[in-house]
Amino acid sequence: MRKALITGASRGIGRAIALRLAREGFALAIHYGKNREKAEEVAEEARRLGSPLVAVLGANLLEAEAASALVHQAAEALGGLDTLVNNAGITRDTLLVRMKDEDWEAVLEANLSSAFRTTREAVKLMMKARFGRIVNIASVVGLLGNPGQANYVASKAGLIGFTRAVAKEYAARGITVNAVAPGFIETEMTEGLPEEVKKAYLAQIPAGRFGKPEEVAEVVAFLVSEAAGYVNGQTICVDGGLAPH
Ligand code: NAP
């Protein structure tokens, strides 16, 4: 039985990943920050879709110790851990000249440092088993840049670099580490953007539409599969053709 921890699985992309892996029969640790009720609903649906074992775990990833402890709690609840999806993330958008230190620090902490901590603990467990799958949810803006998001872009570009480094460090131990870079995906994170901003994004997307969380989950499901063992250190864009390559 495969065993996965998905951070930020109470809604949006994390929820879709949890439900997709439930259909594959994974045992799941569904992590949430504040929305316990929503995480319980995801757990209920995951059980219905075929997950044999589901744990719901809360942790504020802005707290260093909570992020490290989360991995061990997940492994304890599931009887091991072979898959980690670092999905939780936040934005605090503003122009650089108005960006406060706390806006910078919170975004770097939630999006990058927490992934460093969970990955460090997960790799220790995966090394013993000589098998592991780690997927980091980055963003196309980590490749392209985006005005008003210096903190967010830096965190996602950092996550892509972190992915490449750790992939090389543990490739010989049967552990793969890849990133998925979504474009504009319809979730609560993007719901609140002003209409004119959404229109401007849409005009740039070759597919002519925004993406769905399930479309990101599909790529994650492949990357965590045993079949993807020779795909390592990559960043796969799920963006309707937005990012140039
Ligand atoms: P979302 O709907 O805003 O959900 C964010 C998730 O992260 C929630 O489950 C939330 O938990 C959790 N979270 C946030 N802060 C946390 C904290 N301090 N401690 C613990 N958990 C925390 O976001 P989304 O759109 O699904 O995005 C998921 C990932 O994809 C993020 O990394 C985001 O940067 C990335 N992404 C999204 C898009 C997009 O267009 N939506 C594009 C590119 C990349 P609670 O609700 O329980 O607090």
TrEMBL record:
GO terms for biological process: fatty acid biosynthetic process. NADP(+) binds at residues 8-11, 87, 152-156, 185. GO terms for molecular function: 3-oxoacyl-[acyl-carrier-protein] reductase (NADPH) activity; NAD binding. It catalyses: a (3R)-hydroxyacyl-[ACP] + NADP(+) = a 3-oxoacyl-[ACP] + NADPH + H(+). Keywords: Fatty acid biosynthesis, Fatty acid metabolism, Lipid biosynthesis, Lipid metabolism, NADP, Oxidoreductase. Catalyzes the NADPH-dependent reduction of beta-ketoacyl-ACP substrates to beta-hydroxyacyl-ACP products, the first reductive step in the elongation cycle of fatty acid biosynthesis. Belongs to the short-chain dehydrogenases/reductases (SDR) family. Homotetramer. This is 3-oxoacyl-[acyl-carrier-protein] reductase. It comes from Thermus oshimai JL-2.
